[in-house]
Structures are given as C-alpha cells and as structure tokens.
Design a protein that fits this description.
Blueprint (H helix, E strand, L loop, with lengths): L4 E4 L5 H4 L7 E4 L9 H8 L4 E4 L7 H6 L5 E4 L9 H7 L2 E3 L6 H16 L2 H9 L20 E5 L3 H12 L3 E5 L5 H7 L1 E3 L2 H7 L2 E4 L13 H6 L5 E4 L8 H9 L5 E4 L19 E3 L8 H19 L11
Helix pairs in contact: 5-7
Bound molecules: (2R)-2,3-dihydroxypropanoic acid (DGY).
(2R)-2,3-dihydroxypropanoic acid binds next to loops.
C-alpha cells in the first residue's frame, strides 16, 4: 500500500519522527534553523497529504490550491495566525494546533520576562560582563518590586490563567480583561474582571496573552500606553501584531511607561538595528515562549498524532475550529 506523504517544514529530531515512518512517507526540510524556502514548500506540497509546519510559514490560498491532496495542516504552535483558515475551509483541509502542552512553559517564560524586566536582570548581567562594576551602591541597578503589586492580564485563556497562578504566588492583585468573562477562572485564581482601560490604569504589570485576531490587531495603541502608569512594565508574549510598536517606542521614550519585555514582534525575526533593541529598559527575546526541550518535543508529538488521527480516520486531537 502506498503510504500518504507527510512533509515537515523544518529538520526535527529523527527519534520523534521515526515511529511515524511506519504509516507515512515522511520528508522534511534539511535545516533546523532556517525555514523552508517558499518555492520548495510549494513544490513539496503538490503531492503531500499532510504538512507539519512552523509559525514562520505562511500557509495561504496558494498553498491550498497547489496542495490538492492535502487533508491536514498541523501547526507547531498554539497560535495559528500564519494559516489562512478560510482558505483551509474552502479546500476542506483540517488545521490543528498545539494547545495545552505548552501552557506551563509559556507561562514560565512570561513570568521570567516580567521578573527580569522588573529587576533589570539583563542590564545587570551586561554591566558586570562589561567590567563596569567598580563599587556597590544603594541604588545601583535598582528595579521595581513584583511582590504584592498588581498584574493586568490581557487574555484569560489557558496561558493567562497559568500566569495568574504564578502571580498569586507573588502575592499580586490579579486583574484581567478578556473578550468574555471567565467566571470559573476567576474563582480558581482569584482574578478580577475589569474593562481594558481600567486594567491599563491600575496595573503595575500589563501582560499580553491575547491571540492575534482582527479584533486584537494593534490594540496596544498610543492611547493604551498613555493610560498606563508611568511606572508600568509592559510584557508581550502573545503576538507582535497586537502592539503598535511605534506607539510602544514613543511611550518608552517619553517615559509614559517604565520598561518592556517582549518575546514577539510585528516582524520576525527583528534585526539588531531595530530601535526597541537600543533601549536598556527593554528586554527582547526571539519568540521562545514555549521553547523548552520537553515542551517542544510534546508539541511535535501532538502534531504527529493530529496528522495520524486525520489520515487514519480517527480524527484530530486538537483541531482549530473554523
Ligand atoms: C505559539 O505556540 O503560538 C507560540 O508563540 C510558539 O512558541
């Protein structure tokens, strides 16, 4: 029997893929750190029944029109803004993502970024490595406290709730804003629902965990930053598209807010000459929210199980509703 083809758009560990070779004819892009060129993706997809792709691939109308045999696209991320869901529906292709398995790792990263930004960890590390540490002094690299402060979580999904659990351990007052109220989550983590503007006005730490949708696009505007406290720390671990980066820069430059920690950007990868990178009060990370060895392995396995479910007829485990 001819095995259905699975194309993986990045080189991933063979030991994870190997058990699935029994069912599929698997080929993958040859590099781990470089995305597959568009023309190769379009060529590979022609006879593919499934693709396992990264958030760096644009899976759009063109991909679906070329990939006439495609049945499933498994995205190695919980976010799926790189995939045209409407085109997938029209083509009758199932799209899956990786919710759940990455929740705790992503919340760990979000909270690390919050702590590191508040306590100027990266700056302090740089200071000592550049041999600037000549004397101890009382306010040397003094940051801001996290304990007992107020956190404003924008987006109370799984990751938002996991952030709230961490915030609780730090004695924080937890405010959140979400498309709809999450009463059960409020009970579980002791969070209070507030309007977006109230959250911005009251929070010492504003953390964005919202998915990229047309509604959230550019929601952190000039006005939003103006509403924040001048001591506020802004953290973004969701998607760069939710922030107007020019407005964020202006807010930092005019000291409307104190600092920012960013794991995601409007355009990725950002280049070293990006103005946000020149600021000592901004910590930038290369979109590593879920990047722990354990979690990335679980994400890959979930993608492979989703593909198996679709191609063998038992159904996907985590289908993106569309
Ligand atoms: C996701 O899962 O959407 C993350 O941004 C990728 O790590």
């Amino acid at each position: 029997m001819i095995k259905p083809k699975l194309y993986i758009t990045r080189k991933v560990p063979e030991e994870i893929v190997e058990p699935f070779r029994e069912y599929f004819s698997i080929s993958m892009w040859q590099y781990e750190e470089e995305p597959v060129p568009r023309d190769i993706l379009l060529k590979e997809v022609v006879d593919a029944h499934s693709i396992l792709c990264m958030l760096s691939e644009r899976v759009d109308k063109e991909v679906f029109s070329v990939g006439r045999s495609l049945q499933v696209v498994a995205n190695l991320a919980v976010g799926y803004d790189n995939i045209d869901l409407e085109a997938a529906s029209e083509a009758g292709v199932i799209v899956t993502n990786t919710p759940g398995v990455l929740t705790e790792s992503t919340a760990d990263l979000g909270f690390s970024l919050l702590l590191a930004t508040a306590r100027r960890i990266v700056e302090a590390n740089q200071y000592i490595k550049e041999d600037k540490w000549k004397n101890w002094s009382p306010y040397l690299l003094a940051g801001t406290d996290v304990y007992n402060k107020t956190i404003g979580i924008v987006g109370m999904g799984r990751i938002g709730e996991a952030i709230a659990r961490r915030a609780k351990g730090f004695g924080m007052e937890i405010l959140y804003h979400n498309r709809s109220r999450k009463v059960e989550a409020e009970d579980r983590v002791g969070a209070t629902y507030v309007e977006f503007h109230t959250l911005l006005e009251k929070a010492d730490f504003v953390i964005s965990v919202v998915p990229a949708t047309p509604e959230t696009n550019g929601m952190f505007t000039n006005e939003a930053f103006r509403k924040m406290k001048d001591s506020a720390v802004f953290i973004n671990i969701s998607r760069g598209s939710v922030v107007n980066e020019k407005a964020l820069l202006e807010a930092l430059e005019s000291e409307q807010i104190a600092a920012a920690g960013l794991d995601v950007f409007a355009e990725e990868p950002i280049r070293a000459n990006h103005p946000l990178l020149n600021k000592s009060n901004v910590i930038c990370l290369p979109h590593i929210g879920s990047a722990s060895m354990e979690t990335r392995t679980k994400m890959l396995q979930l993608c492979l199980e989703n593909i198996t479910g679709v191609l063998q007829g038992t159904g996907p485990i985590t289908e993106v509703p569309h």
